[in-house]
Design a protein that fits this description.
- This protein has 410 residues and is α/β, with parallel strands linked by helices.
- It has helices at residues 2-12, 20-29, 87-106, 121-147, 202-205, 287-296, 299-302, 389-392; strands at residues 49-58, 61-68, 77-80, 154-157, 170-171, 176-177, 226-227, 252-256, 263-267, 276-280, 283-286, 305-308, 315-318, 322-323, 330-331, 337-343, 353-358, 367-370.
- It has 3 domains: 18-45, no CATH class; 48-147, OB fold (Dihydrolipoamide Acetyltransferase, E2P) (Beta Barrel), CATH 2.40.50; 154-392, SET domain (Beta-clip-like).
- 22% of the residues lie in helices and 20% in strands.
- The strands form 5 sheets. Strands 4-8-9-18-15 form a 5-stranded mixed β-sheet. A 4-stranded mixed β-sheet has the order 6-11-13-12.
- α3 crosses α4.
- It is elongated and about 85 Å long.
- The structure holds zinc ion (4 copies).
- One of its GO terms (cellular component) is chromosome, centromeric region.
Length: 410
């Protein structure tokens, strides 16, 4: 009976959708302690400034409205400047105020004088929104780094507008096959080389050449498949034919673009030419399902559909809702990333993995891009562009800014 009870309780267990902060706020509001969310008798009445919301001058004294960390907004209090020991938050407050004012300046609004005794409500509102956005983006960044299974860190940055984390996006590290599609993740062949660089290794078995040189750079032309060593091979993790499987090693930043291209991805470190940067992952669906979703999606959604057309056209990768950092990589008609088909533990030629390699040296801070029309085949002749009705409906103007820009995304 006891076991059944425990089983029943477990069955009813659902993940809490409320953030830890909100739960702590509730506890403090109700004066309850709860060890599992970190509210103890000791810290029940702790006060730490989370951010500053507003400013006023009363009798020549400066006051700031404080949002307390772990406390609800209703407990915000005005504190005199000399009580505040948070220089960084003060600087943030003034930066946000300055940014707001420089934005309205462009729109020729009236700018309040510096000797004002109170802030305009619109300014305070903006500062609070910015503070909340910063917290939400930090939380999202933490979550992405918890979920990712590769070495490189993921950063998130928005210095452009008030857009927060995307609401309908789930981070995954590898393909998520739709019901009915099976990804065989066990190779049927493994090599037994003592040195995979010099011997007839896995690529030779597949009838192709080894894709990499000794510096871990790709040396085969686009359109040629990559066959990496797999779990059946005798070689170890240092084998020169294991690159994509080790995942992204660069620290990348998902950032808000200032040219209207939404989120984009930039590298925070220098990337050598011909190096593996990231994999393109998403849901693996049948091409019929892709056609159906294509009808439902707006233009943006359609750009996440990636046909696996290496040898057949049975399957499509849809990264609209499930994906990794590649979900945020923008299109360019003159890109710095190039697509390759990769086979590792799955040797089914209908289901290659998609890897993005740098086409040239990419400097720290540069945005990463790939050509959405070059998905899969690596050929950009007009035949290769998909003109199926679902994807042709409306053309999307390209904002890549390249000299060679073709003008449209699709
Ligand atoms: Zn080998
Ligand atoms: Zn091998
Ligand atoms: Zn090997
Ligand atoms: Zn373009």
């Amino acid at each position: 009976m006891a076991a059944a009870g425990a089983e029943a309780r477990r069955a009813w267990c659902v993940p809490c959708l409320v953030s830890l902060d909100t739960l702590q706020e509730l506890c403090r509001k109700e004066k309850l302690t709860c060890k599992s969310i970190g509210i103890t008798k000791r810290n029940l009445n702790n006060y730490e400034v989370e951010y500053l919301c507003d400013y006023k001058v009363v009798k020549d004294m400066e006051y700031y409205l404080v949002k307390w960390k772990g406390w609800p907004d209703s407990t915000n209090t005005w504190e005199p400047l000399q009580n505040l020991k948070c220089p960084l938050l003060l600087r943030q407050f003034y930066n946000d105020k300055h940014n707001y004012l420089s934005q309205v300046k462009k729109g020729k609004a009236i700018i309040p004088k510096d000797n004002d005794k109170t802030l305009k409500p619109a300014i305070a509102e903006y500062i609070v929104k910015k503070a909340k956005q910063r917290i939400a983006l930090q939380r999202w960044q933490d979550e992405l780094n918890r979920r990712k299974n590769h070495k490189g860190m993921i950063f998130v940055e928005n210095t452009v507008d008030l857009e927060g984390p995307p609401s309908n996006f789930y981070y995954i590290n590898e393909y998520k096959p739709a019901p009915g599609i099976s990804l065989v993740n066990e190779a049927t062949f493994g090599c037994s080389c003592t040195d995979c660089f010099f011997e007839k290794c896995c690529p030779a078995e597949a009838g192709v050449v080894l894709a990499y040189n000794k510096n871990q750079q790709i040396r085969i032309p686009p359109g040629t498949p990559i066959y990496e060593c797999n779990s059946r091979c005798r070689c170890g993790p240092d084998c020169p034919n294991r690159i994509v499987q080790k995942g992204t090693r660069y620290s990348l930043c998902i950032f808000r673009t200032s040219n209207g291209c939404g989120w984009g991805v930039k590298t925070l470190v220098k990337i050598k030419r011909m190096s593996f940067v990231m994999e393109y992952v998403g849901e693996v669906i049948t091409s019929e399902e892709a056609e159906r979703r294509g009808q439902l999606y707006d233009n943006k959604g359609i750009t996440y559909l990636f046909d696996l057309d290496y040898e057949s056209d049975e399957f499509t990768v849809d990264a609209a809702r499930y994906g990794n950092v590649s979900h945020f990589v923008n299109h360019s008609c003159d890109p710095n990333l190039q697509v390759f088909n990769v086979f590792i533990d799955n040797l089914d030629t209908r289901l290659p993995r998609i890897a993005l390699f740098s086409t040239r040296t990419i400097h720290a801070g540069e945005e990463l891009t790939f050509d959405y029309q070059m998905k899969g085949s690596g050929d950009i002749s007009s035949d290769s562009i998909d003109h199926s009705p679902a994807k042709k409906r409306v053309r999307t103007v390209c904002k890549c800014g390249a000299v060679t820009c073709r003008g449209y995304l699709n």
